[in-house]
Please model this.
Amino acid sequence: MTNDKPIGIFDSGIGGTSIWKAIHDLLPNEKTIYLADSKNAPYGQKTKEEIIALSIKNTDLLIQMGCKLIVVACNTATTNAIQELRAKHTIPFIGIEPAIKPAVTHSKTQTIGILATKGTLNSELFHKTTEKYQDTKIIEQIGHGLVQLIENGEINSPEMTQLLQSYLNPMIEANIDYLVLGCSHYPYLIPQIKKILPAHIQIIDSGEAVARQTKNILRDVVGLSNAKSSEPIFYTNTNPKVLNEILENKFKVEKRDF
Ligand code: DGL
Model:
């Protein structure tokens, strides 16, 4: 079974491009349409109702554009809105959630850290996940301010270093051996984070797992593309400068209202 329609991907901004990259690397022949809802970032501080409304808005546009499957490349939108999206539409949705399970499974110190947005850490779905792992100490830290700095193109700023140190140093003191990045913006901070964490602490994000899951659902349910190659399309509803930078100016980015 083949299906040449595009995969739709959305995030509150530019962070979900970390997921897009993993999908594009694994499935280079798939057409992809990416929506960066940077105008409404950060989602992490909004109410559940607001996050659901924004997720529906993005999804409706991607479906209107003919997408065969949607990847919610945002932990905050997944943990707060994916049930509503699935209830509203028949096409498959793939979400991204913090990779707590592999961290807990491999932790030797039985202490792990998670850095995520307030919206993700306060969600019911996240609580249900962590309840399963009572034997491991899970240090939760909201990444206040990190998404805004990334959206502003200030990844390497002194302010970023300071914020990261204040969030990570208590985790290092508590003897974590795994740090879970529970926000699709944060993989862009890995070089910075590595300068702060001792080398034995492993960093986990969910990009590759989401790409593998996307491939499985396409193969088994929706149909993989038969195309030879495909130019991705990126839309942003703010100034495209930072999105272009994060994509190393390799792809076409268009500004549109949504
Ligand atoms: N990139 C998003 C996530 O994975 C949301 C960041 C935000 O807008 O607060 O959670």
Summary: Residues 125 and 131 are 10 Å apart (CA to CA). Residues 11-13, 15, 41-44, 74-76, 117, 120, 147, 183-185 surround D-glutamic acid (CB under 6 Å). The two ends are 33 Å apart (CA to CA). The chain has a mean pLDDT of 97.
